[in-house]
């Protein structure tokens, strides 16, 4: 195959380079994968309404998130086990994020410790948190703050691990090859991929909104709540102390049949009404997808699987190139839409189905 010229090319090359069990682990969703597919197809139903005869000789796509400048409104979402995609794992990913002058969110289930990743960072970092035990969570938050991370991203849509049938067929529990130094006290977990009770010390199904004030009490870092899909939960997140919200359905990997994130975004943005920043993830594959998300109120988007595709294909250079493809597409599409900067993106730029 010729060198990749878009994210879909990277997806094809990544699948060819991975063992099938690893591909299924990264690519798959839960149950019938309805939401996994909908995250992507929903973007194709949203049309653009471009303006013409606008001066777009220069085009500025830089922005900021929680006051931190980034070169474009594309952030790296938390995703587990980069070491299964490439031997350099999260080390390659954080170097690529720094080279692109954008932000990386490190997963609790990273195959490199949060301190090791921070030591290599040339750009801003957020730390994503699963709460296995309160004691362990407090320790990870404090370590992240000391290491220079600038926000804690609390994932709230995982009260239980979902039923992921690709992983069931592949007996992923027995296959576990990843080592997560920051989670499970450094021991490789035996995670349930069928939704059963066999989840060791994970206490996600006992956590309530009171966890947000507790987190705020143990750190000075802002708390970003990831996994919001409704106006009701957006309101609660703000009331309990969230500094920002990520509209997310866990990439179609948790409750199947929920709305795609780009369709949930307007409801959440309307509820928030400017009281905090709103980001979204799920299904972003093109520069025009980013424009659509920003027109519907997102300040930035996060990408997950495309990072893993770039990593699998060519390590740090693959991730960097993938990000540059998105940057190039976004810049060109903005010009074609009549926008000279992100500030020119208005709600009137999109037509919903």
TrEMBL record:
> What InterPro entries does this protein's entry cite?
Aldolase_TIM (IPR013785), Alpha-hydoxy_acid_DH_FMN (IPR012133), FMN-dep_DH (IPR000262), FMN_HAD (IPR037396), FMN_hydac_DH_AS (IPR008259)
Show where the FMN hydroxy acid dehydrogenase domain sits.
Answer: 1-353
Q: Which domain of life is it from?
A: Bacteria
What UniProt keywords apply to this chain's record, in alphabetical order?
Flavoprotein, FMN, Oxidoreductase
Q: Which residues form a coiled coil?
A: none
Any keyword NAD? no
Where, by residue number, does glyoxylate bind? 164, 250, 253
Indicate the family of this protein: Belongs to the FMN-dependent alpha-hydroxy acid dehydrogenase family.
The molecule here is called Alpha-hydroxy-acid oxidizing enzyme
């Amino acid at each position: 195959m010729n060198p990749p010229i878009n994210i879909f090319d990277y997806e094809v090359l990544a699948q060819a380079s991975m063992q099938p069990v690893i591909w299924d682990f990264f690519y798959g969703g839960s149950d019938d994968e309805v939401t996994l597919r909908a995250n992507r197809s929903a973007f194709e139903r949203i049309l653009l309404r471009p303006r013409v005869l606008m001066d777009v000789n220069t085009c500025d796509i830089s922005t900021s998130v929680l006051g931190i400048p980034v070169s474009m409104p594309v952030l790296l979402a938390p995703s587990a086990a980069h070491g299964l995609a490439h031997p350099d794992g999260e080390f390659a990913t954080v170097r690529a994020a720094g080279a692109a002058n954008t932000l990386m969110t490190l997963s609790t289930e990273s195959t490199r410790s949060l301190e090791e990743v921070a030591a290599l960072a040339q750009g801003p970092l957020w730390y994503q948190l699963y709460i296995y035990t309160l004691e362990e969570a407090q320790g990870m938050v404090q370590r992240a703050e000391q290491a220079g991370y600038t926000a804690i991203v609390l994932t709230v849509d995982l009260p239980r691990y979902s039923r992921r049938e690709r992983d069931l067929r592949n007996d992923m529990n027995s296959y576990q090859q990843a080592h997560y130094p920051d989670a499970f006290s450094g021991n490789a977990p035996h995670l349930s991929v069928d939704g059963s009770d066999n989840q060791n010390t994970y206490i996600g199904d006992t956590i309530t909104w009171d966890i947000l004030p507790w987190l705020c009490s143990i750190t000075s870092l802002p708390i970003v709540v990831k996994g919001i899909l409704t106006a009701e939960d957006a309101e609660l997140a703000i009331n309990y102390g969230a500094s920002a919200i990520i509209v997310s359905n866990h990439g179609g990997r948790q409750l199947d049949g929920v709305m795609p994130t780009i369709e949930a975004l307007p409801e959440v943005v309307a509820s928030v009404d400017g009281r905090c920043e709103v980001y979204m993830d799920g299904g972003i594959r093109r520069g025009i997808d980013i424009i659509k998300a920003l027109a519907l109120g997102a300040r930035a988007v996060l990408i997950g699987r495309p990072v893993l595709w770039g990593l699998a294909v060519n390590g740090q250079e693959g991730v960097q190139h993938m990000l540059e493809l998105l940057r190039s597409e976004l810049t060109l599409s903005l010009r074609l839409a009549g926008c000279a900067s992100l500030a020119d993106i208005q709600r009137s730029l999109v037509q919903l189905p």
